[in-house]
Amino acid sequence: MSSPAVENPFIVYSYVDAVSVPLTEFTAEGRFTVRDDLRQPDGILAAPLGIMVLSGASVNVHIHAQGSPTGVDVQIFDPATDVSELLFRSRVLRVGRSQVFTEVRIEDAADERRVIGQGTTSFVVTGAAEPQHPAYGQPVEHGEHLAVAGERPPLTEVYAGVPQAGGGFEVAANAAAVTAGGRLHSGSMQVLAEAAAMEAVRRSTGATRLWTERLGTTILSAGRYGPFGINAEVMAVAEGSAGCRVEVTDRGAGDRLIALLAVRLRVLG
Questions:
Q1: Rounded Cα distance, 186 and 12, in Å
Q2: Are 51 and 187 contacting, i.e. CB atoms less than 8 angstroms apart?
Q3: What gap in Å lies between CA 137 and CA 28, rounded to an integer?
Q4: 58-108 residue pLDDT tens
Q5: How is 66-111 classified by DSSP, letter by letter?
Q6: Percentage, residues of the chain above pLDDT 90
Q7: Where are the domains of the chain?
Q8: Residue 261 and residue 243: Cα distance in Å, rounded?
Q9: Tell me, which fold does domain 4-267 have in CATH?
């Protein structure tokens, strides 16, 4: 099966149907359908939630300034195995001269008392706000939504990851589907880092059942050249949790480190 990542232009947001609605200049909401391909066997995947967190944050941030994300952090408290739709409530915490910070509360859309997770973002200000901003109450979509017939391929394939023999992934230099503004998008980094961490823990521990409790992304530099490497290291396994670090390097720029991700996985067995 050919991958939508090859057949379509920029798909980071649209493939997971990430749509957010700005309610005021400081708040936004988004609803997210939890498809089967966005789950792990024992919990929800964190990377699609991180993409949705960034979607909600960006519609507000760009009202105040042009900016690029430098951090996306998702904490999952509930594996949400029985949840079909999530509600994301996003708000801007601070607009500064050089940075903007946001927070997102993730709830079961059918029961707002059930909090599934929480997320934060940070953006570096790169310029003044655009003269026009999205209309309040109107959905903001980041690219055309995709109709996929039949069984969906693995997310790692969609987000342009090529598995490597020793573990981890490589993303080709010309992977336009996951490149925005000439830079490798953090959404692809999150998808591939989570998968690389899970595989590294499976190899290290023999575990077959895992779910992600935290996925934190720190962006250090723009990845403009490629190919890009995504490599995971298991740092510790204790009391049913595994901690990993994942490096994203720009091999076309002398193996420059462009992002570091922290992944914490619950090991069930």
A1: 9
A2: yes
A3: 9
A4: 999 999 999 999 999 999 999 999 999 999 999 999 999 999 999 999 999
A5: EEEEEEEEEEESS--TT--EEEEEEEEEEE-SSEEEEEEEEEETTE
A6: 84
A7: 4-267
A8: 11
A9: Porin (2.40.160)
